[in-house]
């Protein structure tokens, strides 16, 4: 056991050397997990880099709530947002009659809003052109007559006040068959015919590509969604030059240009950075550089990020869970409480847990590590407990009558006897941890989840595999590693 | 630790911890184990009812009786594995309690069926565990282990084997070595030969008796086999349903039974020894 501890301490030190934590004073741009936001984030960071080469882009870290919390906490400095979203979602519940009021309310939170970037990306709903023509549907109010249509809406649209609930009320729509699904998967569902009608953004590239009909908003229900940047007031002082560069985008992106860029990325498979660089070159005559990531560079980076999440969280779980398991064994009363608590933690859906973490710890690797840490506790605590509890009575008594201290008994007899069970608990945790860590990408922690997330967004199977295959391989390697540890550390006498 | 002079003296003296000299002259230790009015129940069933007994120093006392008579409960109360509901256990004039439990246990060698060995340690690992823990030098440990292998007739090449690789009789010899390692004053043996087949059992009985004679320690041995009891005992204690029916030597029991149960218990034991 002592040796095992040593190995993990060495692993922890190694990982801290491998993954140094730097102090961030340069500008950090955030973007949501859809293509347009990533392109705008990429434009911002490339412009900022012309004066602040260290500027960073935390790509596709989540939805509105995640980005807004991250901005308030200072985890990011600036990100692209839409006026409608600010009104209906971020400042929901506050009466805002004009832009000036919105500015003041944001100002009170130490957040500033840029001028409009030049295009409107409002919500719209639509369906396959062929089906719309067949049913004679042109406007949203036409939908009242077609109760049987199957609606598939993005989860955000389903929940938002300015989304489906408000739309249904405003138009008095009778449809009940409404499914929530990922925005990027909605188009596929539409094409396959499993749903008839979806929500989208008016600048989405897919509208043309899939021959969709955008239904006319004849009651003017959807508010304006003018693209803007939201940024922390402090960066006006800390990074005025970089901010000035980013704000050159104000009023310079027409709707047609945005649709074209979206299409280049989503349909033609151009990297977001390339589309952004092309625009900046044409528009501002500025040659920007962006890192052209090769497959291997990306794989190495994701592997590093993923290992960072797994190693730190697993190590923390091991040094916490084994003592908890011992405590549960020694004090049966508090033991049942400990086992219940770690059991309950296990039942919290991982996505929910990750999002709970944001207001507390922010975005990035650390909230993901904390969540992974919590998930890794149960198998280790439980196996430590059952390993100790399962020691035969005659062995326990033989140890007891030796006349040694309780701590010595634990070290000399009980822990070595329980070591096979404890190690198999650690192995279970490690394998689950490797899989769950892919979700870390949802809150900007990187890792193998990143290409999976991007792959889903771009409907790109090969990208998804670039995350899924290494994650599976890593899980197998981790399993193999702990099989080896078992061979070395479980006393030979217990294997006879 | 507040130990009485006899116990403290023996704990701190080298001869107790046994460098070379493990044959201690009879009568060296003047402490008996004394049980006073012990009662113990399990889930309202009385296992021991107001039992008093002296386990005399330097003698071999054998507890015998049918299964369920309370003899295992009694030996576990003496080793502190169980606490009596009422009554006291004394080592000399010192009462066994939580505060002196560990010190007294260091003066006890405890042997159970099959030796109760720790499966994760080799034979020598089992034997030397306690000595290593209390900081004996390696030389001293090696010497003591060597003495004990000779005393218990354990083959030296078996020392590096794990319990699972040893025969039942060998495991029991390792168990005895482990119990004797620190040269304790008291030896408590709970059915030590119970699980062995007759030939091995016979050999071990012979060897164990020789060990007892050589060391002349205060011994308490629990068995259900009257032949074994007669073979070892200076004093036999016959138990039934949580009480002591009769104590003394075998001739007393046979000739002056305290109770008809004594006679029927003797009759029920058929064996090679002619009673």
Shape of chain B: globular
Shape descriptor of chain A reads elongated
Number of domains of chain A: 3
Number of self-contained structural domains of chain B: 2
Report the oligomer: heterodimer
Show the largest interface.
A-B, 22 and 28 residues
Identify the CATH class of the largest domain in chain B: Alpha Beta
Structural class of chain B: alpha/beta
Overall pLDDT of chain B, averaged? 84
CATH architecture of the largest domain in chain A: Orthogonal Bundle
How would you describe this structure to a colleague?
The complex is a heterodimer of chains A (496) and B (275). Chain A folds into 3 domains: 24-120 and 225-284, Periplasmic binding protein-like II (D-Maltodextrin-Binding Protein, domain 2); 123-214, D-Maltodextrin-Binding Protein, domain 2, CATH 3.40.190; 294-495, MetI-like (MetI-like fold, Orthogonal Bundle), CATH 1.10.3720.10. Chain A contains 22 helices and 10 strands. Chain A has helices spanning 2-18, 35-49, 64-73, 83-90, 99-108, 129-135, 155-159, 164-171, 183-192, 206-209, 235-238, 240-246, 255-266, 272-284, 295-330, 332-347, 350-361, 365-389, 393-400, 406-436, 449-457, 461-489; strands at 28-30, 56-58, 78-82, 111-113, 123-128, 151-154, 178-181, 197-201, 212-214, 227-232. By secondary structure, chain B is α/β, with parallel strands linked by helices. Chain B has 2 domains: 28-48 and 58-105 and 186-194 and 210-268, Rossmann fold (3-Layer(aba) Sandwich); 108-183, no CATH class. Chain B has helices spanning 5-12, 14-17, 71-78, 101-106, 123-133, 138-152, 168-180, 198-215, 226-232, 250-255, 260-268, and strands at residues 33-42, 45-55, 60-64, 86-91, 94-95, 108-112, 186-190, 218-223, 235-240, 243-248. In chain B, the strands form 2 sheets. A 6-stranded mixed sheet of chain B has the order 6-7-8-3-9-10, with helices on both faces. A 4-stranded antiparallel sheet of chain B has the order 2-1-4-5, covered by helices on one side. In chain B, α8 links the parallel β7 and β8. The radius of gyration of chain B is 19 Å and the shape is globular. At the A-B interface, α19 and α20 of A face α4, β6 and α5 of B.
